From TrEMBL:
<dbReference type="InterPro" id="IPR052019">
    <property type="entry name" value="F420H2_bilvrd_red/Heme_oxyg"/>
</dbReference>
<feature type="domain" description="Pyridoxamine 5'-phosphate oxidase N-terminal">
    <location>
        <begin position="26"/>
        <end position="132"/>
    </location>
</feature>
<dbReference type="InterPro" id="IPR011576">
    <property type="entry name" value="Pyridox_Oxase_N"/>
</dbReference>
<dbReference type="GO" id="GO:0005829">
    <property type="term" value="C:cytosol"/>
</dbReference>
<dbReference type="GO" id="GO:0070967">
    <property type="term" value="F:coenzyme F420 binding"/>
</dbReference>
<dbReference type="Pfam" id="PF01243">
    <property type="entry name" value="PNPOx_N"/>
</dbReference>
<protein>
    <submittedName>
        <fullName>Pyridoxamine 5'-phosphate oxidase family protein</fullName>
    </submittedName>
</protein>
<dbReference type="InterPro" id="IPR012349">
    <property type="entry name" value="Split_barrel_FMN-bd"/>
</dbReference>
<dbReference type="GO" id="GO:0016627">
    <property type="term" value="F:oxidoreductase activity, acting on the CH-CH group of donors"/>
</dbReference>
<keyword id="KW-0560">Oxidoreductase</keyword>
Length: 173
């Protein structure tokens, strides 16, 4: 993981007394292992749009893909600010994670090939993509690939309850 560690803070307003700040490297391990993420984008009229999707952590950022005419891709043409969330649907175990940042289109074929391999490694051969003309090509057609480098991230621990905030300076991931 390039760069230095983020500024890490435990927010005592939302944490039990015995809670400690979550470790960013452990959060990265959770992001790497998570299978489902929820992506929040903003529609041109300002309304939120939330959808589940697959994502891979690679080289200090989360990456996802979508067809160029899907709602999330159309939203990103107007506003690249996004939130990706993952975690557990349980009350007393696990750690939910929230990553905020800007979704930047990945067009470099070498980077896209590395990401295509990461998808196959993580999700299996049914998630194999060709790389052509700065995008993924798969059974569903052409897919744009986006990278979200965390600007701010949050970890919501359970048992004990604790809220950790990680803040990143540009290029610190």
């Amino acid at each position: 993981m390039p760069g230095t560690e983020p500024l890490t803070e435990l927010d005592p307003r939302y944490s039990e007394q015995e809670a400690t700040a979550e470790n960013w490297r452990e959060a990265v391990a959770r992001l790497t292992a998570a299978e489902i993420f929820w992506l929040t984008t903003v529609r041109p009229d300002g309304r939120p749009h939330v959808t589940p999707l697959l994502a891979v952590w690679h080289d200090g950022g989360l990456h996802f893909c979508t067809g160029p005419e899907e709602r999330k891709a159309r939203n990103l043409r107007e506003n690249r600010e996004v939130v990706l969330t993952t975690g557990t649907n349980t009350l007393k175990e696990g750690c939910d994670l929230v990553v905020e940042g800007e979704a930047v289109t990945v067009r470099d074929d070498d980077r896209l090939r590395a990401l295509a391999d990461a998808y196959t490694d993580k999700y299996g051969k049914e998630w194999t993509f060709e790389v052509r003309d700065g995008a993924f090509l798969g059974d569903g057609g052409r897919a744009l690939v986006f990278r979200v480098e965390p600007r701010t991230a949050f970890g919501f621990a359970k048992e004990p309850y604790g809220q950790t905030r990680w803040r990143f300076a540009p290029g610190r991931v």
